[in-house]
Amino acid sequence: EPKRKAAFGSVGRRIPYRILHVINQDGESLGNMHRAEALKLMDQHDLKLVLLRENAEPPVYRLMTGQQIHEEQLKRAEKKKAGPKAGMYIKELSFSSAIAKNDLETKTKQIAQWIEKKYHVKVTIRQAK
């Protein structure tokens, strides 16, 4: 089964990697350290570890406060809203410039139905010879 991408947030104490690259809450790099060291640092400063880049070598984690995590989640939600919608469909219709009148009327009705259903419609007209 495919691995689902986890939501941005604290990873808790379950970290599958032994060596991590850690960044503090101010954005300064603390370098590579063992998982136990990072957890100790997290507990001392009462912060949470958040995975930033999993496919880096070693994986990059950041120490963040709960407020910073919340703000980052809000930023990511705004970016997701601004992007293209997953359920958006584009209907494409192509016909010749020598199309018969009744065929054109039929295609026009079809386009009107698609627009009512909130589809994006792309019409291409080829030049007749």
TrEMBL record:
Q: Which residues form the signal peptide?
A: none
GO annotation, biological process: mitochondrial translational initiation; ribosome disassembly
One of the Pfam families matching this protein, by short name: IF3_N
The record's GO molecular-function terms, alphabetically, read: ribosome binding; translation initiation factor activity
- Per UniProt, residues of the Translation initiation factor 3 N-terminal domain are 11-78
Q: Which UniProt keywords apply?
A: Initiation factor, Protein biosynthesis
What domain of life?
Eukaryota
Query: Record's GO cellular component, any one?
Result: mitochondrion
Q: Which NCBIfam families match?
A: infC
**Family label:** Belongs to the IF-3 family.
**What PANTHER family would the database entry show?**
TRANSLATION INITIATION FACTOR IF-3 (PTHR10938), TRANSLATION INITIATION FACTOR IF-3, MITOCHONDRIAL (PTHR10938:SF0)
> What is the name listed in the Swiss-Prot or TrEMBL entry for this protein?
Translation initiation factor IF-3, mitochondrial
Gene name on record? Mtif3
